[in-house]
Amino acid sequence: MPVVEKNEEELMAKANASLDIVRHWLASKSLTLAPEKTESVLRTRKRKMGPIKFEIMGLENCPKNYIKYLGVWMDKKYDFQQTSHQDDG
Asked: Which of 3, 7, 34, 62 could form a disulfide with 15 if both were Cys (CB 3.0 to 4.6 A apart)?
C-alpha cells in the first residue's frame, strides 16, 4: 500500500490511518490482519529520512531494507536486482 508524504510525521500518520482502514475492511469480511507478520519497506528518493515506525494493532513496525513478497525480493529502491539475500525456503 503506497503512502506518499513530504515529512516523517505526516508519513507515519497517513500510513497508520491507511493501515487502520485496511484492518477495518478485513474485519468487515471476517478476516484478521497478522501484525507480527506484516513487513514494510520505505521507498524514498535520494533524501535521508529520520526514524520511521508504523503501528499495526498496537505493535510497532519498522521498515526494513528489503523484504520477500510472493517470492520476489524488493528493496527500498524497488530495482528488483538479484542480490545475495538469503532464501529461507
From this structure: 3
For 37-52, write each residue's pLDDT tens digit: 888 887 776 667 777 8
For the record, the C-alpha cell of 1 comes out as 500500500
DSSP string, the chain: -----SSHHHHHHHHHHHHHHHHHHHHHTT----GGG---B---SS-------EEETTEEE--BSEEEETTEEEETT-------PPP--
- Using only the alpha carbons of the chain, give its radius of gyration: 14
Domain residue extents for the chain: 8-64
For the whole prediction, is pTM greater than 0.85?
A: no
